[in-house]
Design a protein that fits this description.
- By secondary structure, the protein is an alpha/beta fold.
- It is 39% helix and 16% strand.
- Helix 1 packs antiparallel against helix 2 and helix 3 packs antiparallel against helix 5.
Length: 444
């Protein structure tokens, strides 16, 4: 499916940005065509290599491959948007030609440079004519305005053909400029500092003595071929600056093995919090060559406690809150999936519980188990708009705070963080990276 989609998009880009804007047989068309072929192959190698090869191998092609993926996507998006003004301009041109005396009829479906070139050669009676005004015969009367031959001679259609090529080239230039600007902006956002989101959350069952408890939440750090140790150090520094009582890492920490990325994760040992740092697996932990278990042990050695379908008690101000964590849904394929019953069963029902679960879709089960607040990631907030419009097809919440009714009354609230890193293209548009500080407050 991915290969098919890549092929279809590249064919579309070739037809609209290359074929429609260049003349048949020209060097420019050949160069641009081969460039598209090479970039398509590079992107496929990059995406396949991220699953089949080590980080060092992927790093060689990752930057150009993933940047082209982002640029291809926005060329496609802007190209679709440009179809409307392109169609209007083509319609106006065709209508003008039909109503101009002495011009040959032109099918409105002829809307690219190659067809225009063929038409030009036919009208001019030449096999190699380039679209454009033909030189008038000295004996041919010339109109007073515009220098066009009078009466529909050999050069009568050429200016209209030039206008068609001009429309295609203008549309292509606008599409390319828009895509380049969008990707450039997205790169600066993805590689820049995460935004600190401060979110107050009221829990009806929270003991007033615990009001003000601060939970730092970060997800989707995605240590991998495009990130360095500085990425982790910056996140740790920003979290420590929040002076949180609890630190939570809600999945998708890595895109590689401990051998490949262990040094990038080392700064996590410097995380500071009053009651500890906790971690739950995301889907990407199950994509690594060695599986999640080696990262579970690595994080323990760094002072971050994994919550593997289990819970701990957080005591603050003489009151107690349950902090629970479940494995990601992808673990079910290897017998390591989420177990809400194990994580939440047998607890004091009067005590509030905060659940760490990587995917927002797990909130339905959380609500059935009486969870007060679920912290999730996974969506990246869409990462590159308009992908945020597609996320609801799979997940109930794209980003931010929402609530789900519980049986027996009350709501389970869920906060979905956009994540502090990126997956694939180092690009974020409309969804800046985020570190969240949740402040719990008593009352409804």
């Amino acid at each position: 499916m991915i290969l098919t989609a890549v092929a279809v998009v590249h064919v579309y880009l070739w037809r609209r940005l290359v074929r429609a804007s260049t003349t048949p047989g020209s060097r420019l068309r050949r160069v641009l065509t081969w460039a598209l072929v090479v970039l398509a192959a590079l992107m496929v190698v990059t995406m396949a290599g991220s699953r089949l090869s080590g980080v060092e191998v992927v790093r060689v092609v990752a930057w150009p491959g993933y940047l082209w993926l982002a640029l291809m996507f926005y060329l496609f998006v802007f190209g679709l948007v440009a179809e409307v003004p392109r169609a209007i301009a083509a319609f106006a041109l065709a209508r003008g030609r039909r109503t101009t005396p002495g011009t040959a009829p032109v099918d409105g479906a002829v809307d690219d440079a190659e067809d225009a070139s063929v038409l030009a050669r036919t009208v001019a009676g030449e096999s190699s004519a380039v679209p454009g005004p033909a030189a008038p015969d000295p004996a041919t009367p010339v109109a007073a305005s515009g220098g066009r031959p009078a009466g529909g001679g050999p050069g009568a259609d050429a200016p209209a053909i030039d206008r068609r090529l001009f429309i295609s080239r203008t549309a292509s230039a606008v599409v390319a400029a828009g895509a380049l600007a969008t990707v450039g902006y997205g790169v600066t956002r993805a590689l820049g500092d995460p935004v600190i989101e401060r979110v107050p959350v009221r829990l009806p069952r929270l003991d007033p003595r615990m009001s003000g408890l601060r939970i730092a939440a970060v997800s989707d750090i995605h240590l991998g071929p495009l990130t360095g140790r500085g990425h982790t150090e910056r996140i740790v520094r920003m979290i420590n600056g929040l002076e949180a009582d609890v630190v939570t890492i809600v999945g998708d920490l890595v895109d590689g093995t401990v051998a490949e990325l262990g040094r990038l994760a080392t700064p996590l040992k410097s995380l500071e919090s009053r009651y500890g740092a906790y971690f739950v697996t995301g889907n990407h932990e199950y994509y690594t060559a060695e599986g999640p278990q080696e990262w579970i042990e690595e994080l323990r050695s760094l002072g971050v406690r994994p919550l593997r379908n289990e819970r701990v008690e957080i005591t603050h101000g003489g009151a107690v809150l349950d902090l629970a964590g479940v494995n990601d849904l992808n673990g079910a394929l290897s017998g390591d999936g989420p177990d809400m019953g194990r994580a939440l069963g047998g607890r004091d029902a009067d005590r509030p519980v905060v659940l760490l679960a990587h995917q927002p879709v797990q909130v339905a089960q959380a609500a059935a188990h009486g969870v007060d607040l679920q912290l999730s990631g996974h969506t990246h907030g869409g990462q590159m708009a308009p992908f945020n419009l597609l996320v609801p097809l799979q997940q109930p919440v794209v980003a931010g705070l929402a609530s789900v009714p519980r049986q027996g009354g009350g709501d389970t609230q869920i906060y979905v963080t956009r994540g502090a890193g990126f997956w694939g293209p180092p690009v974020r548009v409309g969804a800046p990276p985020e570190i969240t500080l949740i402040e719990l407050r008593a009352g409804g």
